[in-house]
Batch of 3 targets.
Target 1
Amino acid sequence: MDLATILLAALLPADPGGASDSYFPADPIRIEAEDAALSGLTIETSRAGYSGTGYVAGFDSADDSLTFVFTSETGVYDMLFAIAQPSRFGSWTITIDGVLREGTFVGASGAFVERKAINLFLSAGEHELVLNAPGVEVDYLLLNPVVYDPPTVPTATLADPQATPVTRALLYFMHGQYGRQIIAGQQNLSDVNYIKSVTGREPAMGAFDLIEYSPSRREHGSNPGRSSENWIDWASSDAIVKLMWHWNAPTDLINSQSQPWWRGFYTEATTFDFAAALADTSSPNYALLLRDIDAIAVQLKKFDDADIPVLWRPLHEAAGTWFWWGSKGPDAFIALWRLMFDRLVNHHGIHNLIWVYTHQRTHDDWYPGDDFVDIVSCDVYADDQSATMLSDWQDLQNLYGDRRLVTLSESGTLPDPKVITAYGIWWSWFALWTGDFIRGVDQQYLTEVFNSDFVMTRDELPNWRSTVSIESVVAERKLDLSPYPNPARDEITFRYSLPESAPATISVYDLLGRRRASIDLGSSLTGEVRLDDNLQSGSYIAKLQMGSQSVARLFTIIR
Ligand code: CA
């Protein structure tokens, strides 16, 4: 994390909703089976090695039940039972707060051993757990809290070295935000407005589709109208814009009754061979690729002209192969991605783009490369409405998490922020797909999600544009500087150390980069110095400079 990222993080509300502070490691919960409520079961003591005053046996009917009532804190727990069982497989059913789960204990054992049943999220409060496990003897229940760390924040770099200041500011802001709150997005302007009307909160990010600007659709009469202008108006100077493009193939549309022209972004609706086009830069079809990218450049330029950065997510879900840009394998796809990058960035000079690549599980060889991608995303359409998408998150974290933000660019279900963050899942943003996907979400639940402390809505966005002036302040670690106490309620003191005896200065800047104080130090190698300046409440940077070396630290004054 560079200093600019830290500083931008500091611009977030002082208490980010308590979001990442909510999950302290809870204590394990252990309950002896013989202390639970038994139905059709008996307490035994003949098998040695139990804890407490005995163990529970006699599961021989589906009506038998062992009921535990316990109180937990909010968080994720591994649920284990200390059991003995004569056979290798012992099936179980667990009803937790009325929800039935089923599984199997694996491994015969004459001694009591802890076997994990499930891993689950529990809200703070009282819970009821009912166990039935034929042939299994139960010594105790153990719930072990599992703490998932928030993600590593990667270094904020942009694939486009000429990215505009506001584009850099947005990415830096998003890096600072990562692991603290998830930015609320939504596909489609009418659905953004729907969420606002239902929940009272507006998504911070609008996700829009340039589909109707595809030249081959316009040739068939589609009319995007003033879509770009409307999105620009909506975004104003505060909201975040994400654009995608269901690129209708430039030519060779099948255009039959079953594959009409307007399905032309699907592989099955076109015979267009873009790999062949790319292989011959003098071919008419290559020229058509450029024609289409150029048409989209016109739209992207409008955002640039309005000084609105764009999270640009073209050529999505390629490895799924259902879109034509994924129909010719990874090499052709990567070539097309890089052509688009070069055409937009270098040829057209569009420098307001943050490039978002959509990864498909197991297709790791489709990645266009760090020089062409800023953020890596996935689109997840789960069957289970309560899906956590943990494995999708972990997959992206393992592949890209050390160097790119990871996000949920599309989903068919709305993950519960309080549950997924307990699992350490901190997508940069989420954006539910349009239409029935969003309209079908229970409105009370929708309201909870958009009012969650873990979710950042439009009204909660800080002025991320103003933060870019801090960029020039770079942390180095050759000197050391430590403000204390931090935060400080009245006066702040700086402890410092120097690598050699030489003149050095501590300067204090506010977050707009204005110098507010300066202290010349003696030449002792270590020391401390008090700041005699009544700074107002807020966050500041203290920068220790010695010759060409410097180190900067953030501190906060609270009055
Ligand atoms: Ca026991």
Note: Residues 232 and 303 are 7 Å apart (CA to CA).
Target 2
Amino acid sequence: MAKTRVITPEELEQQEPFKEQLRRFYEQRQPGVAPLAYIRTYGCQQNVADSERMKGQLAQIGFGFTDKPEEADFILFNTCAVREHAEDRVFGNVGALKALKRRRPEILIALCGCMVQQEHIAKKLYQSYPFVGLVFGTHVQHRLPELMVRTLVERRRVVEIPECDGVITEGIPAERDGTFKAFLPIMYGCNNFCTYCIVPYVRGRERSRDPEFIIAEAKELVRQGYREITLLGQNVNSYGKGEAHGVDFPELLKRLNAIPGDFLIRFMTSHPKDATPRLFDTIAACEKVSRHFHLPFQSGSSRVLREMNRGYTREQYLELIRYARKAVPGIAFTSDVIVGFPGEQREDFEETLSLIREVGFVSLFTFIYSPREGTPAAKMPDPITAEEKTAWFQELTALQESLSAERLQKLVGTEQRALLETDAGDYLEARLAENSVVRVQGDPARIGEYVTVRITSARSYIVTGDIVD
Ligand code: SAH
Ligand code: SF4
Ligand code: F3S
């Protein structure tokens, strides 16, 4: 296992002179006017959390933030590589900035994150997108000020994607997007090498933050009034493995649960091969831990699961679900599933459908397999046509829709605790602990509060209810 290297506050101090240089640079350019940054984040919550920390660094320099790229002095795309579609969107949206750069040559356009951590992508960007000034990978985000200085002050195009693995940065304040829901990374990287997945290559080896830092951050979030804290990692169930502190995921949950206050602890993602009966027993004993569990199964066929290198069989997955339902009454599951993995046959796909029927998920994130350069699955024979895969995908989505509708119908007449999340204009959206959204009438000033909702109707995905207190 790679040795974890914690970037300490002392090491972060080395960025201070660069921040000062940037302050002077922008002050000279436009005296008395704060520069503006536009940050666009693709991909998963991990990327959202990274962007919040990069925003923290920019705020320290004196940046303000805008959601209009044409107003910005600094444009940063934090990219995702998980499927081809994600990468295509980035290329398209970066291409669209060319005209802006021509009009305002002084702006700095930068790309970072998982997609650019791949060398062939970084090369393509450097060659084909000359208006992109700075490209940096997933292991050097704490050096953002230094990289900006090298690009802006020293007037060079910079590509920085070192393989320097095992980095954990502590001490960068997050500039959070939400005011009552917060992401809290507990670990980084992945060691599982599912054969279809690019994440281990672009995020490096698995490493866990020290529990002291996590608990301190959680306490601070609760103090600030956050109502939901989502713990993040590619496989939270292996939290702490290989680290000297000896705290594993169930133990971490217990310690977080012990923080006083009215808040909910969520987490994602859990890997079935590392979800243990002890984890479910812990959840049962921790009243602040959400009864919603995101547990990706990827395929219902043990043969395909083996080809995916997932480390469990269909039977083991179902056994885990049975145990969880016994240990934690009312637990609700969501999941991820891939359709059209190389070599998947109609029989395999039908096993996926039958698993979905058997478990009864609240909702599913469904993906058509997308080959990723450098992963073992990309080299496997894949005789099923794209049309066939699309047809299977639609069949699966239709099945889940009808199951979800049936499930939601059963909620009608019940009372549920929910967090008022969004003002949709005609109604407010409240999220149930199990992750479904309910439309209610209420005062937008109450957003961020917990309420009790009586569910009055459920038509396909649209659930409505009344606030009863
Ligand atoms: N670490 C998490 C998921 C990370 S990626 C886990 O193991 O569950 C999120 C989801 O994207 C995965 O669960 C998977 O369903 C999907 N995914 C990953 N690589 C993919 C690929 N090459 N093609 C299609 N879907 C993919
Ligand atoms: Fe990818 Fe598998 Fe790691 Fe999840 S566990 S990030 S799917 S390699
Ligand atoms: Fe995408 Fe990277 Fe997350 S590849 S899904 S942003 S870890």
Note: Residues 386-409 form the longest helix (24 residues).
Target 3
Amino acid sequence: MSAGAKLMGIGVHRASRVVPNSEIVDRINSTDEWIRTRSGIVERRWANDEETVEFMATNAAREAIAKAGIDGSQIDLVIIATVTHFLQTPSLATKIAHAVGSTGAAFDISAACAGFCHGIALARDAIKGGTSTYALVIGVERLSDITDTDDRGTAFIFADGAGAAIVGPSETDDIGPVVWGSDGGNYDLIRQKEDWMELVTSDSPGIPHLVMDGNPVFRWAVFTMAKVAQETLQKSGINADDLDVFLPHQANLRIVDALARAVHLPERVQVADDIIHNGNTSAASIPLALHAMLADGRAKSGDKALMIAFGAGLSYAAQVVTVP
Ligand code: COA
């Protein structure tokens, strides 16, 4: 058992192909200007053939392990959040555990864009409860595989990449209690269009594309997540003035800005904006954003950060963490 848990290291894999808006707009009768003003996205990264979810997750994991200063064999829990590992079984997590030298418990979770924060919550509770010492949590997606490039509502949003964190024991609560939940009444707002059985038995089998009713998702995110953010701060016993970094899921820059205003963040708080150059990478978006902010100095070790993630389900999870 440990008094608390902490983030020890963050690693990423950024997909290699940079795709500017100009490459997307013709097929969806849109413009660079529309995409920038409505979503904040200037370009996104899509994986090449070599950059499978396994490849990207392993790379991100190796960097996180090196940064944490542990050996892969010390990891006794591996949790992978993804919706784009196309084998229903076995999990991607057992494969990645093996790749990094771990024989720990390993499983995948499906909580879409909220998956990384769900994984951090599970790892934190396992460490505090004494069933794990070092956990590897990964968010990885190849959303380009399930994006319909002719769909005006989604073609410009989704992207690929991986982000990983090592979670380990701490004398203090450097990962605060999670606030999480779901709103299954809105199950259909973001979803895979067809299930696998429908696809394989159809006359024209194809890829299970994502479909999204963007506008209600936008309104739900701003309204509901503002309350979740406040509740998360309260549960951690702090207020917005105590924060240094704001790390919301990178779904849309307007949602990020609206949440920052709703939480009354002081001006000095650094706000993640990874969506501008990386698009929406779902479960990978928060660790990718944190990694970028650590690299350019906007986030520093010891900073207090509020992570808040939301997406298909609808599902959400949020917690306050100390930046590693
Ligand atoms: N290019 C140009 N115009 C477009 C367009 C596109 N790609 N998509 C829609 N439009 C048009 C619509 O036809 C509509 O035109 P009208 O006013 O003449 O009827 C107008 O733009 C507004 O459409 P709307 O769907 O209301 O846009 P929006 O402001 O809600 O922005 C999203 C669309 C997708 C950017 C926004 O809803 C969003 O980001 N939603 C949440 C996404 C999200 O968080 N997803 C992931 C959760 S994990």
Note: Residues 97 and 246 are 30 Å apart (CA to CA).
